[in-house]
Amino acid sequence: MSRPEALKEPDLPAAFPRSLSMPLHPLHGILLAFPVALFPCALAADVTYLNSSEMQWSNFAAWLIAGALVFTGLSLAWTLARVAMRRAGSCWLAIVLAALFVAGLVNAFQHSHDGWSSVGTTGLALSVISIVLALAAGWIGYTVPREVRA
Amino acid sequence: MTVLRHAVLALAAPLALTACDKAPELDQTGARPQLPAQKETLLPPMKIARPAGWNGAMPSVPQGFTIIPIATGLKVPRQTLVLPNGDVLVSEGLGGGAPKLRPKDVIAGYIKSLGKSGTKGGNRVTLLRDRDGDGRYELQTVLIDDLNAPYGLALVDGDLYVADQDALLRFRYRDGATRIDGTGEVVTKLPANPNHHWTKSLTASADGTRLYVGIGSNSNVGERGMALEEERAVVWEIDRESGAHRTYASGIRNPTALAINPATQALWAVVNERDELGADLVPDYMTSVKPGAFYGWPYSYYGNHVDPRAHPQKPEMVRKAIAPDYALGSHVAALGLTFLTGGGFGGNYADGAFVGEHGSWNRRQLAGYKVVWIPFTNGRPSGKPRDFVTDFIGPDGKARGRPVGVTYDPVRRALLVADDLSNTVWRITPSAAR
Picking from A9-13, B186-190, B333-337, B376-380, which range would have the lowest pLDDT averaged per residue? Predict the structure, then answer.
């Protein structure tokens, strides 16, 4: 099975069995870093809005969530490609990223509401859920497989 | 993989819970509209009627009336004014330009643009003249050019007043003029930053000493920050001589047309209310504008119905808020108002007002897209709105036109309707009359 050039994994010992886990491609890792960083920033902006009623903080949160979503989507697509290529360990990452994408998308719509409704209880809860999922995705994605670490 | 697919489907399910409004028929017109519970859905209910040409078809009018286009090829006609000599002025413009602050502003701007003509605003006032009184306006010429999104028009004491989106201008008018050069004299600057709602409606008091300008809010419900709402959602009363102004009424979200009620000489307005509280909230309204009154925006609507989106909330303002006189229906987007004078068309159309309804985006079942008639008795509305000019939505569900300003011509007994989608001015007359 030939792989597209863009999806080429880092060089590994030739004897390395394909079915075992492999670390993320560096570019994939960079894509995954965005949701890990941006979703917590969105929560911080949400909390600041709820404390200040200053709309600009809600606007910041809306852009942060939109940006996080774009990179979550790219990272998810790459992970699904890994799943399709039967890279072990990719399935959980795909599930968590898919959940994160959905939570982030719902939150993006929530943040499109006007005034207090742009955050409120729902937006705050979705932001917290997004952080948990983003951190979980980062944890799974950045864990170096034991076989490679050795 | 199946596990994955199921997980994705399960998580995607909430997205389907967007908008489905099979609303029971609510009575949302008249003095006491039914106001259902607020319904904020993940996505607002939306339907944009895509534009389509008239292709020879015409709007429908009641039996006994005739409609013809008297001007076509205009550049986004908004409001009209009939001069003493019978000439008709049309303001043409498309203003606004508030910055896009959120991803939503980008997307919503695109969606709403699907229902517009795409024509660039003319930034001018066009003059139409019917030399021989046969109801055909042979002359169509630019009276004033290089304006900045003109909307409201008024003629007082030989001066023509034009409400640009950023200033109230005065032009010297000679009877019979077909061209006015120059930039006009600034009577007063008008709040224009950043003009989320940019239309500056205009009318003169009955005695001509005062001018009233309607200044719409800078947001749906304060989501651009209340700092931008200073001197917004208000009606200004302007001294015609000095240009000095005072706030005549406030909390009046978007007063898109002003007119003097001939029976009482009181100022009346049609006002566009807020969006995204459901398909049946909040009804747009027509009201007498009481001096000093606060009409609720953004804190509440129809008196004390609190809008939770305005934050921090202001209970003291909600207590002050008064309800408007007469609801027109949710999301109809009333943009035109004119009263009949001198017996009007007689019969069923002797005493009352016409309202131009541009049409909705924030509901699945389209509302507005017509001109309605509201009967008055002793200066007060005395019945339900009745359709007067209809079929702006074609049988295919596409919009052939969208009514904006309506003006009654008392000299020639005609109703003028500006249509900013087909860039036409329509004229409706009793069939017998010429």
Answer: A9-13
H helices, E strands: number in chain B: 3, 27
Burial of B47 (0-12, 13-18, 19+ CB in 10 A): middle
Q: Chain A: residue nearest B308 by CA?
A: A116
Q: CB under 8 Å to A2, separation ≥6 — which residues?
A: none
Q: Write out chain B residues lying below 8 Å of A99, CB-based.
A: 7, 11
Distance CA(B77)–CA(B199), nearest Å, equals 12
Averaged pLDDT, B364-368 = 95
Does the beta-carbon distance from A115 to B310 stay under 8 Å? yes
Closest Cα to residue B201, out of B235, B228, B244?
B235
Phi-psi region of A105 (alpha: psi -120 to 50; beta: other; left: phi over 0): alpha
CB within 8 Å: A99 and B40: no
Q: Is the pLDDT of residue A2 over 80?
A: no
Q: At what angle do helices A26-52 and A120-142 cross, to 10 degrees?
A: 160
Searching chain B, which residue's CA lies closest to the CA of residue A91? B4
Q: Which of B18, B41, B311, B313 should one mutate to test binding to chain A, selecting the residue with the greatest count of A CBs within 10 A?
A: B311
B225:A55 CB<8 A: yes
Set of chain A residues whose Cβ sits within 8 Å of the Cβ of B219: 114
pLDDT score at B254: 98
| ipTM entry | 0.88
Report CB contact under 8 Å: B276, A59.
no
Question: Under CATH, what is the fold of the domain A23-149?
Answer: Four Helix Bundle (Hemerythrin (Met), subunit A) (1.20.120)
Specify the pTM.
0.90
Residue B178's contacts (CB-CB under 8 Å, 6 or more residues apart) are B127, B129, B139, B141, B143
> pLDDT by residue (tens digit) across B280-293?
999 999 999 999 99
Give A146→chain B minimum CA distance, Å.
Answer: 24
Structural domains in chain B plus CATH codes: 47-430 (2.120.10.30)
Q: A130 to chain B, minimum CA–CA distance in Å?
A: 13
Q: Does B1 touch chain A (CB under 8 A)?
A: yes
For residue range A77-133, list pLDDT tens digits in order. 999 999 998 887 789 999 999 999 999 999 999 999 999 999 999 999 999 999 999
CA distances from B92 to A39, B233, B309, B342 (A): 46, 23, 34, 29
| B227 close contact with A: CB closer than 8 A | no
